[in-house]
Amino acid sequence: MKAKLLTIITLAFLTFPCYLSHAQDKKLDAYIQEGLKSSQILKQQNFQLQKAIFALGEAKTLFLPTVSFNTTYSTAMGGRKIDFPVGDLLNPVYKTLNQLTQTSLFPQIDNVSEQLVPKNFYDTRFKTTMPLINAEIKYNQSIKKEQINLQQTEIQVLKRELVKDIKSAYFNYLKSAEAIKIYENALKLLRESERVNQSLIANGSANPSVLIRTRNEISRIESEIEAAQNNKKNAAAYFNFLLNRDFTISIEEDSTYSKADFHSTINEGHREELDKLQTGININRQLLNINQSYKKPKIGASFDFGSQGNASTIFASDKNFFKPNAFFLVGISFDIPVYTFGRNQLKVKQTEMELASLNEQLIQVKNQLDLQSELAHNSYQSAKQIFESKATQVSTAERYYRDSFRRYKEGQLNFIELLDAQTQITAAQLQQSLARYDVWLRWAELERAKASYDLNQ
């Protein structure tokens, strides 16, 4: 009976890694595409991109004519008046003419008194304005174009960060799932040990203390399984959160990452963070051009067509709206500052300093990204070495168990020591599994640092 138990335990531990071997699939890439499509953050940024595109369209219309319709009506009573002595001037002349012609063709007229403020006055016009020369409008269009580039680059940065987060969450999920499998396998062996030891004790072939140790080990493994299951549940919830779906949806495991087939090389990509800074520099250059454009004149044209006068004339039976007071007005405007006590020059200096600061920031960020890439590469290589060391520990633990098994058969080792050997194998396999997924986590960080993931796949 004892030989049967040892054979079962030995075969189970030595063949345990075989459960990792199953058909390879590419579930993770599908999950990444799902996350990129459903991400709320990316949707928000896409709306911001559309906003920037509309802003460019608005900027392009600033060189086109603007037509508006304006009308005002005003009336007043009182106020200052101006007197015209028309009667005093013309009545003597009219009187003389009437005497000479012996007619009454020239009647007497009264003096006129008109108030200065308008009474019953209207002004209605269509006004058209159009800039002819304005450097600020030209540079503003360039800024809007750069803002579109900036938003597009921001979306790319967020996509790369999301890819890294999804991969890291997935590897953590696989890590917790495999830990459960290892613990469950160990628990299965301990259950079998408990059953066999009960039989051996009943037959007087084993000490009862063996059973106590076995049950203590079972209790410990059960608590480890409970903790691992909670870790798996939390890892699944976070992964589903990144995919913007229900937290309880099951996750399919990609067997590609359960093997030690690590990548040896990685392609160098281009960090969009540098593009963001370069776009910011381009925007500030256009702002500098705007601030320097105060030296250039602004020329515009305007055309007004309408009618103004006493409102009572509108209702004359033989007059339309624009008669008899219709008018048109053409104008050209010319604007250039002559002296502003140095305000414009100070604005230029401020923008130049901001531009110089951004150029230095670009150099600093480039060095930081190079450092990040180097550190990520070192971490990846270190993780691989740790995994190889853990693999050696598994091999050593297996050899130690085989030696313990041989000595136990020869009666030179008690069951407690054999159980310790079994525990060492479980611990070594668990550490190897965790080390494997740590390698993949470091790989995800390295891939992010080098911006090598193809976002267009």
Automatic annotation (TrEMBL):
Protein location: Cell outer membrane
Signal sequence region: 1-23
Keyword field contains Transmembrane: yes
Pfam family, one: OEP
MF annotations from Gene Ontology: efflux transmembrane transporter activity; porin activity
Annotated GO CC locations: cell outer membrane; efflux pump complex
Entry keywords, A to Z: Cell outer membrane, Coiled coil, Membrane, Signal, Transmembrane, Transmembrane beta strand, Transport
Coiled-coil regions listed: 211-238, 348-375
Keyword field contains Transcription: no
InterPro entries listed in its UniProt record: OMP_efflux, TolC-like
SUPFAM superfamilies in the cross-refs: Outer membrane efflux proteins (OEP)
PANTHER family: OUTER MEMBRANE PROTEIN TOLC (PTHR30026)
Family stated for the protein in its record: Belongs to the outer membrane factor (OMF) (TC 1.B.17) family.
Protein name: Outer membrane protein TolC
Organism: Pseudarcicella hirudinis
